[in-house]
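Below is one such record:
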Amino acid sequence: MRELGAGGAPDAETRQRIRDEIAGRLAEAEAAPKRRGHAVANLAAAAVALVLALGGITLLLSKDALPGDPLYGIKRAGESASLGLTFDEQDKAKKHLEFAANRVGELDELTRQGAPTDAYFTGLTDFETDLRAGVSRLTALVTDQGGQTRLAELRTWARNQSDRLGLQVEHAPAEARDKFSAARALLDKVQERTTDLGSRLVCYTITTGSSDELGAVPAAGDCVRDPDSPHAVLPPVTSSPPSSAPTGSPAPVTSAPPSSAVDTAAPTGPLAPPTGGTPPPVVPVPGPTNLPPLPTTTTTPKPPLVSIPPLIPGLPPIIIG
């Protein structure tokens, strides 16, 4: 029986073939879930790419959308995303003002197309929103860091936008004209704010500490100048230049050099004698009537150089010299 059982057993080659076949089937069973997982991941990635592509195309198409258009909301969402990716406060303020200027351009296009009143209200409301945000951020920067140039640029920008809206209001619907007037009044307020705030930048107290829709409110009252402030920009001096003498000492009267006195004013009478200091090199001499007589040379004769006694008695000596 043992020999019969041993004779019916598979040989080593057969056992190896069976082992390989079982291992291959197990490997296929394990690979099938992995392939299904890769397929799901690839499908999800393709869906995300499709959504991004459609979103990019939609955002590109909404670039020229006007207030009241179906894609205008997507355009505003893109602007909000752009602000979210901007981290510098000055750049954010500039973007808000840029978007506000874009609204004015869109309103101009609405007047050409004869758009409904709701579109004007939407555009003007968004204009005021961006205007307030931009001005409040910019005035905060000016208060902290100074900058008369920034305020001057903002004032010029506000005046230009007000002029553009003034040209559009004549072609806008009658129902929207009050909204145009409100927007222009806000721009006038911006110009006043920049002027008032600029006049306080050289003061110790710049703002009241409170804010309104346009940002920091300038302080009122007397201005105590702060020339040592690192961010105060002093306006140009228009008064007469100070004298060269120090303010704490009296101005010199007789210490000016004679040459400058002669050049600036001609004397009307005889010059007074100097009261102190070094006399001028050239002094006019008055008439000789008041001066003492000059000494004569005969009062002190010079002694003879050589005296020879007389050779003959009775004759005077011989003097040589």
About this structure: The CA atoms of residues 46 and 142 lie 49 Å apart. Strands lie at 207-212, 215-218, 306-308, 318-320. The first strand starts at residue 207 and ends at 212. Residues 230-276 have pLDDT under 50 and may be disordered.
